[in-house]
């Protein structure tokens, strides 16, 4: 991602986060996720973000944090286009290239659309856990499911 992409990534992130999380996360996390928070966080994550473009516009992005696929969001118009699968594959490759044995990600309990997407991509649900979503005040506990990628482990073995 380039600095010039920050505003587009922040918009996609804000819209996608609302679509995926409202009704599934604590009110304290919703209150912390202001419009400005997405812009600030996107600016801070330029170096660990991969963007996908379509017609010279950002169509989606994925962020990495160690062995975790930390964020994956698509512009509303790009959903269902296959771009999400391409971004997820690119992130898995980056995680394996960094020396990790497998990739993982957190899906908020109740976010059934994300669950279906990751399952279609071959990711497995390892079960519930409490994820601590970062906020300016420290963090908010969110009930999630940990999904892991078998593809990252297979790629590392080859």
Automatic annotation (TrEMBL):
Keywords: Acyltransferase, Transferase. Residues 1-149 form the N-acetyltransferase domain. InterPro entries: Acyl_CoA_acyltransferase, Bact_Acetyltransf, GNAT_dom. It holds the Pfam family Acetyltransf_1. GO terms for molecular function: acyltransferase activity, transferring groups other than amino-acyl groups. The keyword Transferase applies. This is GNAT family N-acetyltransferase. It comes from Agromyces intestinalis.
